[in-house]
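Example: Lon protease.
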Amino acid sequence: METNEFWENSTKLARMEDSLPKQIFLLPIKVRPVFPGIITPLIVPPGRFIQSIEESSKGAGFLGLILLKEDESDLPSEDNIFQIGVVARILKKINLPDGGMNILVNTIQRFKINSIHTKEPVLIANVSYPEEELGTSKNNIKALMRTLLILTKELAQNNPLFTEDMKLTMMNVNEPAKMADFVCSILNLEKEEYQSVIEAVQINDRLEKVLLFLKKEIELVVLQKKIQEQINDKIDNQQRQFFLREQLKAIQQELGAGEDKTELKYEKLLERLKSIPVAEEIITEVDREIDKFKNSDPISSDYNVIRNYLDLVDSLPWEKPSEKDVNLIHAKKILNRDHHKLEDVKERILEFLAVHKLNPKSKGSILCLVGPPGVGKTSIAKSVAEALGRKFFRFSVGGVRDEAEIKGHRRTYIGAMPGKLINALKITKERDTVILLDEIDKMSQGYQGDPQSALLEVLDPEQNSNFRDHYLDLPFDLSDVLFIATANTFEPIPRVLLDRMEVIQLSGYITEEKVQIFQKYLWKKIFEKNGLNPDSFSMKKETVALLINSYSRESGLRGLEKTFDKLVRKIALKQVLKEKYSKEIREKDLVEYLGPPPFVDDRMTIPKVPGTALGLAWTNAGGSTLLIEAVLIPGKGGLTLTGQMGKMMEESANIALSFVKNYVNNDSLFEKKAIHLHVPDGATPKDGPSAGITMATALLSLVTDQVIAPGFGMTGELTLTGEVLAIGGLREKIVAAKRVGVKKIIFPKDNEKAFQEIPDYVKRGVTFYPVTRFEEVEKLVFPKSKGKKK
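Written out as structure tokens, the predicted fold is:
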């Protein structure tokens, strides 16, 4: 609708209302009032005032539009409204789907509330219509009117938001009262300021108020224009710099040194970093490096250094990782699919994942999987990554001597590179990667620094949120990375580093477990690796057990996998050469394909002569058995030790000798004789404190000329007074004993708590004897002994 037509219609409708009602339905409105002489739509929310509109429409359709004092007040409507409003007539109404209503009204004239006639269910007021008065002379009104027109035109020229229709309307409105109302309606005022104009019945008062508000608006527009000009000046300066850069770029292209695509790539990097909530230091440093790159000569040495640095920054995942849902049922299926048994390990992993699901922002602990080689430490870490839906990255820290492998080189050095952690995130391009630190126990200190100390910052959840790689030299958040470390033993790991990790121990497998893992996992894997059909041949459980016990007795599965891989390769060769072979592998076939078994019998596990005893030991490769031998040689009570024993075992041997001398109380026996104590397999170093009772038993067997009872293996630390103290690695020692057929195991009573935690299937078939003193050991292994010698 054209503006002239709008005012004509308003005037016609006003003439039609020669007599306005003395009682009207009130409709409270928010934010700002509606001035007389305007046709405007209003949206009425569902509620009691919908009924007011319906009731009003049954008559002449008059509504009293009254402004609320407070938009969100708990007061009743009649106590929260101003006393002067504008009467309007409903032209059209449309029901809305939510129960509200959209109405088109024409505002006519101001009214004043004399009293509230009805409060419920609708709000009806007794009203009067104040007459407009000049309040001053006509000349003053005319002067005020001209001033209003001049200032309004000035505002219209400086404010681009004023449309041509508004400008035309201002030129055509000649009535001072309507002009004041119209100008006020287009200004941006506070609610109370609008209402003060509504309440100004005298025309001169209304014009003066509108002039005051108009003057403030013009001052605001002038200030806004000044700010805009300042901004434009800055933009012009930036454009000038841009044109100069473009000219420089054109010159470089003429010289054959243009790098348009590269510079565009780095500009996008800067925009990307600004859109991410990263530290201001990062944006400043990258911006500085980009400027250096643009101004560097491509043939200079700094050019490629800066370029490689910016490429690294561009490839890193600075964005916050997306939240990934942790499905514990799915995670449990993955762990059971990939690993046999290890129930305590799986339970701890699921607990870790459950905590992560309940609190994704939890820093948590760093997991450290400790166990002999081949028991599945790395594959468990892969399963955790799959269960979390994250990428997996493994790098071995075994043998790392240089701190820069962890924290990178400083860029001042030639050939500087980032550390392996930053490089891992560069490759995976995800900030919540699962990173496996393999063989963390084999790190060592070199002259280039201590890498173990460098890991302290990496593995500390309180510090790694601002990790600084020496090459990157910017704070990077590693708190979303899940670190999992593996080790064969935790003794070499520094205590301060071990404190930052939660150790989960994985024990070796017994023969029954190996048979099941072989049939469930290794069988198909090895066949696929060698390109054979799993139906090419078969093996009974007895043959698999023989393969394990005769060819692969280590704690883990790698030896078994290599041995069976060798067997399958032999069959593959026969298939390719089309030679005949047995479809069922038996014992004789194992000897044919694999040669004589390295573990022939139990000759070195059964004490058969006085001076021998079988001990149980724990090594980095799992549990093992040690047959300790002792003989009398010419001498005067001395002790000769052989078999690559470490300092702790030498101490245990001396303690055992002193104890036995005191125990048998026979000085004449040692006057002309010395003792030679030997641990076979002398090429292998051995150490540990748990061979005390075994050495004492072997010495007692020697000096009393008794053979210990068959079938016993033992472990325990001995004191000079005969106390048997606790040891470590009990499960591994039990597994090693079962592997060689030992059915009776003596162990310290102090280890009963650890003994109870060992699964029953591991202990099945073995009799256990917890002891607290050596006298109990003597009664078990020397049943015919009469006790301590006098």
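The first helix runs from residue 3 to 16.
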